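Dear support,

I submitted the protein below through the web form. The confirmation email said the job was done, but the results page showed an empty box. After a refresh the structure appeared. I'm attaching both so you can tell me whether what I see now is the final result or a partial one.
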Amino acid sequence: MASASASPFLSGGFEPIRDEIDRESLGIEGELPTDLAGTFYRIGPNPQFPPREPYNPLNGDGMVHAFRIGGGRAAYRNRWVRTRKWELEHAAGRALFGTSGAPGDRDASVIGAVINGSANTNLVFHAGRLLALEEGFGPIEIDPVTLETRGDWTFGGRLPRNMTAHPKVDPVTGEMLFIANFQDFRAGDLLGFHVVDAAGELVRSAEIKAPYPALVHDSRSPRTS
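What the results page shows now:
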């Protein structure tokens, strides 16, 4: 059941923001360069209600933050990602889904409910689309200006299931490459490999049989001497 939590991931710098905020002009200490313009986005877990125990921030509701800078001024906006889980809990006015990962860690009213994740780990802007990402589910598209949730993005129906939270973009070709875990809905030895071209089309997919089960969270090219 929902209760006050002693989790360090719900206090201090991790304390959830309970409101969606629009600030057209933020206070500035000092001075911003007048030719500095752009938007800084960030995302992270931010449960809208006190979560069911035990709390795992990897599954907390995703919230997107945007800091817009231009003309020597700064503005701020934040929005929760409207996942199916978020919408069901918002309608109920309380936490219904556990974050522990245990299959039965749900309120009885949502047993069997199909969800599309928490969209809380990373953001990528590719081919004109801002996508909220996590490891276990597919991306969710976010409007880059309003931060409103546009919905699940499956690359025209070509993404079989989920996507990593940490894709890599080739600086020469502009292709986005990623390896997806949980191809059989568990952390097994089957991985998905996908290539999205610079225009945003998923152009190649393959399955990789790994030598043993592992959670391939991120990948970097090894340095050689």
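Response: this is the final, complete result; the empty box was a page-load delay. Confidence is low (pLDDT under 50) at residues 221-225.
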